[in-house]
Each structure stands twice: as structure tokens, then as C-alpha cells.
Design goal:
It is built from twelve helices and twelve strands. By secondary structure, the protein is of the alpha/beta class. The strands form two sheets. Strands 4, 5, 6, 7, 8, 9, 10, 11 and 12 form a nine-stranded mixed beta sheet that branches. A three-stranded mixed beta sheet has the order 1-2-3, covered by helices on one side.
Length: 441
């Protein structure tokens, strides 16, 4: 692609249209709203530009930067090429037509496209943390500054003896924050401690290393308009892509589940996927999730045998999402509910994380296979498709990685994940035994 039209050539691209970006080095992150004047992008290397129209995210476009900057008319051309389809579709909803050239001073603004939280629906936000520090403070300040104020924000401290989080919460001096010590270790235990104390109609979970958009909570609440929706998940984008490990994590699949709002259930909203409903990575992530409080309490919250801080290392969020769908409720994915997550900077941590994903997935499947609910047989029927999804280099899970391998993506990350997956069953039983002996003490 490069070399043909050097002036304004897009570098193949939009995460929105399937192709993964191929950046290898530090990546500049930018954010544009098409109803406002487009900026001139400066810097070198490449930029990933999140493109929104009337507050709705449409995709991420990769732009090759150059000395002197990429002027607005070039950026407009790149965005027009990569995201013309979704832009035209949105404008059509206003009876407007996408012109051949995107106006650099912005398309017409519109009212009514922003979030419409359900009237009267209150929210408790639960932030789980193990240490005090500037990242946690940044997360909490972002939540306090939301366009829709939460009823309360529970800061669950999973290392109350040493973390100093109590002091940080006190220093913020905002009555919206409540400090909750939870010495029983594990992400699921910490989130469930928040679930038990939540006062809101909806309980929202996030981590201590994220930066939330101003309308993040409003969009999550927007997702609950349909009464059948028990859970809403949002979009997680990288906070920075400074190191190779962070770029690889995005190529691994990152946390992004795309830019189309989606509904999942067992009826009319079944995606065309042979693995469904057991399709890992389709629903979202626990770090950007919201549940109806009463409903989630009734099903027991997150499984405390799964998740970070247990031998199972993960899988608790996918387990909860599966419970939503299998119980006959609906899960809504709302990509406008955006937060940015600080990915691991170092390769050793990335490897550990990917291994942990594999273990968590294996543990979660073991739990469901052995739960004696009839789900086991259903899972076994999906096993051939599941193995293909995990192992076939051309599967939706692996295609982007195969492409990225040409630019140095380490293929052994896939092997590491599979090794974790194979370890999952044993880890799940260890986790159960550990939890049982903890209860006896
Ligand atoms: Zn609009």
C-alpha cells in the first residue's frame, strides 16, 4: 500500500473492517469526532485514531504519520476510505448522504444520538484494587466526573492490611466513594463483596488501571432499556501502545469486541457462530461490565473458584456472561461505553497474562462440563468447533495473529495460551479444594 499514493495513502486498515492494524512500534493514540473540525496529526510512526460520529464510535483507523503532520484533508480521506460504510449508515439515519469528501470542519451535529440512560435507574460502581497509587486515583476521579453521577462508588480493597487504599479514598473527600475492605483474596471475592453492598439498581464493575470516558456510565445504563437485558458490557481500548508487548496484546485480540452494538440471547439474537453460546471473547470483559443487581445476587455473582487471584486465574467473567445467556436473559454489548486500559508493558507479563487466559478458559469450561446441569452434553457437542477455533490458524481467533506474525508477532503466544488451557482442568480442581479448605478454617 505504501509507496503508491504517499500523500494521503491510508495504511490498510480499520480495525472496524476486520483487518487488524499492523503497527510494530510505539503507536500514537488519537480520538476524533466527525461533527467537529478534524485535527492535524503530528508525531512519527503510526497513529491509531478512534473515530466517532455523534458520540458513537465507528472504528479505529491506522494512519502513517510523517514530518510536518497529517493535515485534516488527508485524515478525512483516510477515514472516508476506511469507514465510509458505517459513516454513511449513520448519516442515513438522519436522512443525510455521505459526500465524496468528508468535510474537514465537521459534518452537521445532531441531537438525540447520545446516551439515553433509563430514567430512574441507579448505579453502583465497584472498583477492585490491591494497591494505592496514581492509577487508582485517576480511575476514581474519572468515575466521579461521569456525565451521569453514580449513586455510590465502592472501592473494594483486596489487600486491606498493606494497600493504603483507605487513605486514598479518604483524601478524595467525595461522599460518593465508600471504602470496602475484603481480605479474602481473589477478584471474584472482591467483586462479590461490592455486589453485596451495592445500593444501585445496576452494579458496574471495573478495575483499578483504567481511564473511563465521560459518558461511560451513561452508555452502560443506556443498554438496559430492554427489560430482558440482565447485563451490559462496553468497549475496552488501549490506554497506550508504547511497548511492543502492548502492541502484541492488541494483535492477540486485545479487549475490543468491535464497534457494532449487539444483543445476545438464546432466541432471535443468536449470532451465526458454531460455538455459540460458548464463544469466548464475544461478550466483553468483566473489567467493563454492568449487571442488574438483584438478578446478579440471585445467581450468586462471580464464581469465587474462578478469576485472578485463584489457581484458575481467570474465566469468572465469561462464566457470568454465559449464565446471563443460558438463563434466558439478554446480554447487550454497547461499544459506546468506552474505557481505556493500561496493558502490561513487559513481554514477561504479557506471557503470564495470556497463559492465565488459557488457564481461566480451561477452568471455566471444566466447571460447566462437570456441573451436572445438562450443559456438559451441550458443551461436548460444541467441542469439535471449539478445538478448530483454538487450533486452526485460519479461525477468526487466529487469523489476525497469523497476519501479524509477518511483522514479528510471537507465534508462541498461541502455544502459551493452549498450554494454559490444558492446565485449566487441574487448576480448577485445585481452586475448588483451596476454597473448601479456606471455608473449613
Ligand atoms: Zn447521529
Amino acid at each position: 500500500v505504501a509507496g503508491t499514493v504517499t500523500q494521503c495513502a491510508p495504511r490498510t486498515t480499520a480495525v472496524a473492517t476486520a483487518a487488524q492494524p499492523v503497527a510494530t512500534g510505539p503507536v500514537t493514540l488519537a480520538d476524533v469526532e466527525l461533527s467537529k473540525p478534524l485535527p492535524c496529526l503530528s508525531g512519527d510512526g503510526v497513529a491509531h485514531v478512534l473515530v466517532r460520529l455523534h458520540a458513537r464510535p465507528l472504528g479505529v483507523v491506522e494512519v502513517r504519520l510523517r514530518p510536518g503532520g497529517v493535515p485534516p484533508h488527508c485524515l478525512a480521506g483516510i477515514i472516508r476510505t476506511a469507514l465510509g460504510g458505517p459513516i454513511a449508515a449513520h448519516l442515513a439515519s438522519h436522512h443525510e448522504v455521505l459526500t465524496a469528501v468528508l468535510p474537514v470542519d465537521g459534518v452537521a451535529p445532531a441531537t438525540g444520538c447520545g446516551p439515553r440512560p433509563v430514567a430512574g435507574l441507579t448505579a453502583t460502581v465497584v472498583v477492585t484494587a490491591c494497591a494505592s497509587g496514581p492509577e487508582l486515583e485517576r480511575t476514581l476521579r474519572g468515575i466521579a466526573a461521569q456525565s451521569v453521577r453514580p449513586l455510590d462508588v465502592l472501592v473494594v480493597d483486596n489487600r486491606p492490611a498493606t494497600s493504603r487504599i483507605r487513605g486514598l479514598v479518604a483524601a478524595l473527600a467525595d461522599p460518593v466513594f465508600r471504602y470496602v475492605p475484603e481480605p479474602a483474596r481473589g477478584l471474584s471475592c472482591a467483586r462479590n463483596a461490592g455486589l453485596q453492598r451495592a445500593h444501585g439498581d445496576v452494579v458496574v464493575f471495573t478495575d483499578d488501571d483504567v481511564v473511563v470516558d465521560r459518558d461511560w456510565l451513561a452508555w452502560l445504563l443506556h443498554g438496559f432499556h430492554d427489560e430482558r437485558v440482565a447485563c451490559v458490557t462496553g468497549l475496552i481500548l488501549p490506554l497506550e501502545l508504547e511497548t511492543q508487548a502492548q502492541v502484541w496484546f492488541e494483535q492477540f485480540g486485545g479487549f475490543s469486541k468491535g464497534f457494532e452494538p449487539r444483543l445476545f440471547d438464546l432466541d432471535e439474537h443468536r449470532p451465526d457462530n458454531p460455538l455459540y453460546p460458548f464463544a469466548p471473547g464475544m461478550y466483553g470483559s468483566g473489567a467493563n461490565s454492568a449487571f442488574r443487581t438483584d438478578w446478579f445476587r440471585e445467581v450468586g455473582g462471580f464464581d469465587e473458584n474462578l478469576g485472578t487471584g485463584t489457581p484458575a486465574r481467570g474465566g469468572e467473567d465469561l462464566d457470568a456472561f454465559l449464565t446471563v445467556v443460558q438463563s434466558g436473559s439478554m446480554l447487550a454489548y454497547e461499544p459506546a461505553a468506552i474505557l481505556r486500559h493500561a496493558h502490561h508493558r513487559h513481554y514477561a507479563d504479557l506471557r503470564r497474562q495470556i497463559y492465565g487466559y488459557g488457564v481461566g478458559l480451561g477452568a471455566m469450561i471444566t466447571k460447566r462440563l462437570t456441573a451436572g446441569t445438562g450443559e456438559g452434553r451441550q458443551l461436548l457437542r460444541h467441542a469439535p468447533a471449539g478445538l478448530r477455533h483454538l487450533l486452526d490458524p485460519k479461525s477468526s481467533k487466529n487469523a489476525a495473529k497469523s497476519a501479524a506474525a509477518a511483522t514479528g508477532y510471537p507465534r508462541n503466544l498461541t502455544a502459551i495460551e493452549l498450554a494454559g488451557f490444558a492446565r485449566g482442568p487441574a487448576s480448577y480442581w485445585t481452586s475448588r479444594r483451596t476454597a473448601a479448605s479456606r471455608r473449613q478454617r
